Amino acid sequence: MSELPGWTHGSHTEGTVTHPTYRKGTGPGVVVVHEVPGITPEVLTFAEEVVDRGFTVVLPHLFGQPGAPASTGTILRAIARVCVSSEFTKLKAGVTSPVADWLRSLARSLHAELGGPGVGALGMCLTGGFALAMMVDESVAAPVLAQPSLPAALGRTRGADLGLSPADREAVVRRVAEGCPVLGLRYREDPATGTRFDTLTRLLGDGFIKVELEGKGHSTLTAERQQVAVDRVLDFFDERLRSG
Prior knowledge:
Blueprint: E1 8-14, E2 17-24, E3 29-33, H1 41-52, E4 56-60, H2 72-84, H3 99-114, E5 119-124, H4 130-134, E6 140-146, H5 156-160, H6 166-177, E7 182-187, H7 196-204, E8 208-213, H8 227-241
Parallel strand pairs: 3-4, 3-5, 5-6, 6-7, 7-8
Antiparallel strand pairs: 1-2, 2-4
């Protein structure tokens, strides 16, 4: 496993599943789940900004080569890894990806260690919707969806689907009604997000906070980042995770 300079390498186990982790910072906890093809330099740049804002960031490593830049080769290898993995639900609607159980456990562990109102959970692209699945657990107080792209937006049903089981969907609605808002970011013309933002607006009302950037970009916080999006995420973590 590659090391990331300045980050502490560890691991987390839930049941029979273990994944490596990287950790840095002090303050309330935030779990940043990387996009395809992995923990790229752009993902690290964003994560460092969260650290600099005064948070403890944990980066789970789910696929790819940590620190490697995005390229055609790394993207194809990561997609191949995801396609054969039973942890990720790629096409089925109305199903929560099994990796959500491990991510919830990671969030619970971080919250139990650090305390406070809860932890932040941020997913991007393929992992974007995982923040919704994670907020089913009460430990997550600041869920952020950056361009959620699973299940693959092929057809109307999948394009509108949130990647949640019916029970998890109900739990998300309940938590939002109890005062836990959801922040979502996307480029307005990004086809990968389908019509999920419309679904979230109908389902959660004012509890879904949208940041919609103009154009056909995709990676709102990394490769095609806009500072307004990064700043809104950092402010959201401040609002939700600072006691008092």
